[in-house]
Design a protein that fits this description.
Layout: H1 12-33, H2 35-57, E1 80-84, H3 93-102, E2 131-133, H4 139-147, H5 150-153, E3 179-181, E4 187-190, H6 196-202, E5 213-219, E6 228-229, H7 233-242, H8 249-258, E7 260-261, E8 266-270, H9 277-297
Parallel strand pairs: 1-4, 1-5
Antiparallel strand pairs: 2-3, 3-4, 5-8, 6-7
Helix pairs in contact: 3-9, 7-8
């Protein structure tokens, strides 16, 4: 005989509601007894979804970043820079003028000009006169250089690379160089008469220069001719006549300028391990060139007011 409860069976929507209620109660008691499962199945998925929503809402700053001031003082101190004039007084007047600005206030770059853009607390200037130091080469170094006839070849004793790292004997790189301490606190070597490549390569891994030497300037000998014309005006006029083009002296001279080569007056050295080195040292030279031209026109001018940032 059936129980009296069977007379009240649930059907339809009520039956589905009772089933769902029973399932929820069952799941509640199961979850209550299994905390780890609750965290892994409920809490963590919710957190990851929220994290994904937050990440998708993040956007990079579309504003233009501030301009980066390019200068050679981003690295370790002191900063070693070198300059070299050609031997036998064979330098042009502009080269001498540019070289003199290195050891005159405001010295290198725009760090010490009146209207500098650099933070004076981070990049201070020395107000005292530029100090010059003559360094005597030791007898041991001179003997090593004489043994390889350095005065004639300008090639110092060779280094050894068999031990996976360059190892150089005494005298490698050449004799001791005199130097100036500039207003910008840099050590400016005078390498006149040095083989720049030999000095750079054989002293590259010296602890003294490691991450402290990233460039310099080598002035070229005064050229025999100020410029070389690959194509002259006479040839241009002949070409214009052959092609039935109207030939005028003004047009020919303008075209000839496009084929004129001016010999370089200076080589700007830089080490590309320093990311702004190339443009930073070019900027130093451009500032020196500007001040050199100004002093040629007026030797009493105050060049500390002039700079190119």
């Amino acid at each position: 005989e059936w129980s009296s409860h069977t007379a009240e069976r649930y059907t339809g929507v009520k039956f589905i509601a009772v089933q769902l209620s029973a399932l929820m109660i069952k799941r509640f008691h199961r979850t209550k007894r299994n905390t780890k499962g609750f965290i892994a199945e409920i809490i963590l998925p919710i957190l990851f979804i929220l994290l994904a929503i937050v990440v998708t809402k993040l956007a990079p700053n579309e504003a233009e970043p501030p301009m980066l001031i390019l200068h050679p003082w981003y690295w370790n101190k002191p900063n070693y820079i070198f300059q070299s004039l050609p031997m036998n007084e064979n330098a042009s007047l502009i080269s001498l003028s540019v070289k003199d600005t290195f050891t005159r206030s405001p010295s290198l770059g725009t760090r010490c000009i009146t209207t500098t853009m650099l933070n004076k607390r981070l990049y201070p200037c020395m107000n005292k006169d530029i100090s010059h130091f003559d360094v005597q080469t030791s007898a041991a170094v001179m003997n090593a250089l004489n043994s390889v006839n350095y005065n004639q070849t300008r090639i110092s004793p060779a280094c050894d690379c068999w031990n996976k790292m360059q190892t150089c004997p005494i005298g490698s790189g050449g004799p001791a160089a005199s130097f100036d301490i500039t207003n910008t606190s840099d050590i400016l070597y005078d390498l006149q008469g040095f083989n720049i490549t030999d000095w750079l390569v054989k002293t590259e891994y010296d602890l003294e220069y490691l991450m402290k030497r990233f460039g310099g300037f080598e002035f070229q000998p005064n050229p025999i001719l100020n410029s070389y014309d690959i194509v002259n005006e006479t040839l241009i006029n002949r070409i214009l006549n052959i092609t039935n083009q109207s030939s005028t002296e003004n047009k020919a001279s303008k075209i000839a300028l496009l084929f004129r080569i001016n010999p370089p007056q200076i080589s700007v050295w830089y080490n590309n391990k320093g990311w702004p080195a190339s443009v930073a040292f070019l900027n130093i030279f451009n500032n020196a060139l500007l001040r050199g031209l100004l002093t040629q026109g007026n030797s009493s001018i105050d060049i500390s007011d002039y700079g190119i940032t």
